[in-house]
Model the fold of this input.
Amino acid sequence: MTKKASSKSTKAAIKATAKPIAPKDSKSRAKAPKSTTSEPKKTSKSTVTKPSKTTKATASKPKDQIPVLLTGGNPQIPKGDGDGPVQAYIAAMPGWKRDIGQQLDSLIMTTVPDVQKAVKWNSPFYGLEGKGWFLSFHCFTKYIKLTFFSGASLRPLPPGSSKQKEVRYFDIYESETLDQQTLRNWIKQASELSGWIP
Done:
């Protein structure tokens, strides 16, 4: 009888020791949340990489943009104050006109060091604070037209007449060489006169 009792107690002890093995299922259940937390990381990585591709695509678009040339090959440049818009206009001038535009801009700046610049109505304007604009130029098909807003007071008189009494024009063609001395003289005189204030 004692042997049976001892065997029963041994079986009971085995059952008691076997019960703690069950928590292995709970351990496997505890691992499940780890796998679910790792999944959102994958989606967050994919969402981070997608915007970088779109930003590269949008960043390359402005490089491909070419200024529009209006009638006569005149560049369409947004109006703005300062040297930046004027340089953008000159850079967009087609063919031989670009070189003339650079020469004019340089000549004006050396003659009138404190000149102010702007692009208005798709044309570069040059003036002085408190005096208004004294000069502008514009591209046409076969020539560049300089506008002196107080040109009627210049000597010698610029050859191109205007419907406006004070305005005179000077046209530059491809085959012509700039007479820098005459232009410098006109620019200096014009900068000393009252200009056009829109």
